[in-house]
Amino acid sequence: MQTKSDECLLALLKAGDEAAFTALFNKYSPVLYLEAFYRLKDHEEAQDIVQHIFAWIWQHKDSIRTDMPLKQYLFRAARNKCIDKHRKSKTVSHFNRDYLYTKETGSSQIPLERKELSQQLNNAINAISAPASRRAFQLLYQEGKSHKTIAIEMGINVQTVKNQVSRALKILRGKLKNV
Fold first, then answer.
1. 67 is in which domain, residue-wise?
2. Which long-range contacts (CB under 8 A, 24 or more apart) does 99-105 make?
3. Tens-place pLDDT, residues 58-101
4. Which of 89, 106, 123 is the endpoint of a domain?
5. 102 plus 14 within the same structural domain
6. CA–CA separation, 96 and 55 (whole Å)
7. Is the domain of 23 the same as that of 64?
8. Is 152 exposed, middle or buried (0-12, 13-18, 19+ CB in 10 A)?
């Protein structure tokens, strides 16, 4: 079967001949692997690309039309898969780089800025005129207690706690709007 021409093997493949597919795989997978490895410098990725190409060929064997020699068609497919892989990895690396930059710059504020923001927040919290609203807010957001726990501690029902926290948040939004 290996001595048959590519055109003959392709015709047999289109007819569903597994032996023709195996012959094409045995003939071209080593050189396609080398091509993919040359471009990607990664053994596993190169193997995956070759497997993907031949899986695609088997799945689309009925509709394969080549306007070029089969060898050239396969090499172009390998090259295109490698380019896709580079694009995808470049996108992922850009995303990771941007994420790390955002994470680092967002969390490493200058201590003076952090102190100033903390002071402005404390002033805004202290400006909440209703002591019950202020207390409910502090228990929920600063101490991390649940609505139910706050209700028990303050001797009020859960809905009242929610209403008081809502009032406190409205006041804080107004006070911190320009910060």
1. 6-106
2. none
3. 998 888 877 788 889 899 999 999 888 878 777 666 666 665 65
4. 106
5. yes
6. 31
7. yes
8. middle
Residue 50 structure tokens:
């070759």
Residues 98 and 150 placed together within one structural domain of the fold: no
Report the domain count for the chain.
Answer: 2
Cβ–Cβ < 8 Å for 90, 43: no
Specify whether the CB–CB gap between 105 and 139 falls below 8 A: no
Report the pLDDT value the prediction gives residue 1, as an integer from 0 to 100: 39
Task: Say if residues 2 and 23 touch (Cβ distance below 8 Å).
Answer: yes
Among residues 98, 100, 88, 17, the alpha carbon closest in space to that of 52 is found at 88
| Measured distance CA(121)–CA(176) in Å, rounded | 7
46 lies in the same domain as 125: no
The predicted-structure confidence for 116-162, as pLDDT tens digits, reads as follows 877 888 888 888 888 888 899 888 888 888 889 999 999 999 999 99
Residues 13 and 101 in one domain: yes
Q: What is the pLDDT of residue 165?
A: 87
167 assigned to some structural domain: yes
